[in-house]
Design a protein that fits this description.
The protein contains 13 helices and no strands. The chain is mainly α. It has one domain. Helix 1 runs antiparallel to helix 2, helix 5 packs antiparallel against helix 6 and helix 6 runs antiparallel to helix 13. The protein starts with 8 loop residues before the first helix and ends with a helix.
């Protein structure tokens, strides 16, 4: 009797990865809706408090009661702080910019990773990676052309998001020896604990309306479930296989932007977004080839 060939890693990893992308895009759209009428601090706090409530039981289940133990606590905390800054910049930028174009700008993170890979990890980028970086920045220039709907100072916040995300991902690679549940737990700890400690002195805007309380709960749920699904996907398949599918989030962001906010990118903005996505996929392809050697 013939033994069936083993299933491709994507068969088990891609469904949770795609669902994670949908959860995180839902998180972004919900945050953009909430920051219009609520303090930024409160929205960011809800995102991290919700994530901690979801991922802590997950980490406990996967790694046992000692899931929080680590020999690299300072690096975990610094990485977590970078994610907090990235989130704050991103939510603040979305208050002023369309969701689809704003999300596209954050996909500059892989380009920043290439630029920072040598000083942080000692890795020398290849020529193809430098070409992809240049292409990505050309896409940004197309998005920021004169007369563009996102030619706004808030773009700097989203570029800051991409830079912090790049550093966050590089530090994640430095923590590869750590158990995945431990890394997932510490991802949210600075935002959840730090913001909760100062919440009584900062949140002075009153209690949100009952309908919006549901959105705040959705915010935290999407953050926790999204990051949990990402971790589950990366445990089933290498990042080099999954990364190209990250850029499907641009499509979901465009759909949310139109359905919730009535915003659609114009023709040149679509071109700029496609250039950024193509450059990111080229980077993913180069990582995949290097990992296969």
């Amino acid at each position: 009797m013939l033994t069936p060939p083993p299933a491709h890693p994507l068969a088990r990893a891609l469904p949770p990865f795609l669902l994670a992308g949908l959860c995180l895009t839902t998180l972004d759209a919900t945050a953009k809706y909430l920051v219009r009428d609520h303090p930024l601090f409160l929205v960011v706090w809800a995102r991290y408090a919700g994530q901690m409530l979801v991922v802590t039981p997950f980490a406990w289940h996967r790694a046992g009661p000692g899931f929080w133990r680590t020999q690299r606590l300072p690096l975990h905390l610094f990485r977590s702080a970078l994610l907090l800054v990235a989130t704050g910049c991103f939510f603040a930028g979305l208050r002023y910019l369309p969701l689809a174009e704003g999300s596209s700008i954050t996909f500059l993170a892989p380009m920043f990773m290439i630029m920072l890979s040598f000083p942080v990890l000692g890795e020398r980028p290849t020529r193809a990676q430098w070409i992809a970086c240049i292409a990505g920045f050309c896409g940004i220039l197309i998005l920021l052309r004169p007369g563009s709907s996102i030619l706004h100072p808030a773009v700097l916040l989203l570029i800051g998001t991409a830079l912090c995300n790049a550093l966050y991902q590089l530090l994640t690679r430095k923590l590869r020896s750590e158990p995945a549940p431990t890394t997932l737990f510490y991802s949210a700890i600075v935002g959840a604990v730090g913001l909760t400690l100062v919440l009584p002195w900062v949140a002075t805007g009153g209690v949100p309306a009952p309908a919006n309380i549901g959105l705040f709960l959705l915010l935290g749920l999407c953050a926790g479930v999204g990051h949990g699904l990402l971790t589950a996907a990366y445990l089933r398949a290498p990042a080099s296989l999954l990364t190209p599918f990250t850029y499907l989030q641009v499509l979901w962001a465009t759909a949310y932007g139109y359905a919730v906010f009535g915003q659609l990118p114009d023709g040149w903005s679509v071109v700029g977004m496609m250039v950024i996505v193509a450059s990111g996929m080229l980077l993913a392809l180069t990582y995949r080839r290097r990992a296969a050697r």
